[in-house]
Amino acid sequence: MIEFREVKISRILNPTSIDLGEYVINPFMGCEYSCLYCYVRSNKVISKRPGEWGKYVDIRINAPELLEKEISSKKPKCVLLGSTTDCFQPAEKKYEVTRKILEILNKHKVYYHILTRSPAIAEYTDLLKQGFCKKIYFTINNTPEELKNKLEPKSPSYKLRCWAINKLLDENIGVVPYFSPILPWLSDFKDIFNLFPESNSVEFEGLNMNLININDIISEITSIQQDLQDKYERLLKDKSFYDAFWQSVKKDIIREAIKAKKNYNIHIHSFRAYFNNKYN
Description:
Elements: E1 3-7, E2 14-15, E3 23-25, E4 28-29, H1 44-47, E5 56-60, H2 63-74, E6 78-81, H3 91-95, H4 97-107, E7 111-116, H5 125-128, E8 133-140, H6 145-151, H7 158-170, E9 175-182, E10 201-206, H8 214-224, H9 229-237, H10 239-260, E11 263-267
Helix pairs in contact: 2-4, 6-8, 9-10
């Protein structure tokens, strides 16, 4: 059962260290998709909010009103939508906070990037085609269904996400299919580039083994794939094994990219690096 609350906030444009904008905009606090490997679980601001991640959504109903005021004073040139929430999660259908925000950004000619995994964004093409949406980073992964039900039980299906990406691309809206996370020995990259004929590139991110709840993630994976227990444990402990594995993944992706004549970008987290989450 998800708890929904209508709340009022004091600021909607928050400074960010992410290089996709000067400020971030998050119309909601919380996310219905409840992905177990979501980095937002490590966010210090989010952790102060009572309740389990994925079990609540705070709707920031005064966000559009605040944005109008803050654009006048802060004069942003480019912002990022959805750094700690999904702006197009099911609650948006009722409240349309994100739609109002996009209308305001377009009106004031403020450019924006979007992070999402929701096919519902395909219903916003009228706003996204007005010339101010610079890029949409659309998260996908082809996790086996039984495992998906454990790791991101409420997120949209892979098929629907692929459909939405191609619909946006057909509308000449800039979309980057963002394959994340790569699950060791489970994710399949075969022909991944050919799924999106109109996309010039696909980006990839490996599972972050530095997440604070990585043991919970491994536990869910190995509850279904018991033969991976030792391998995942070794990824946590053995740097040489870790580096060799991810190097082999990179080679597989590069081989597919060359075959499809497409561009790619691969982000692999450093072994035992401190996960410094500065997302607002």
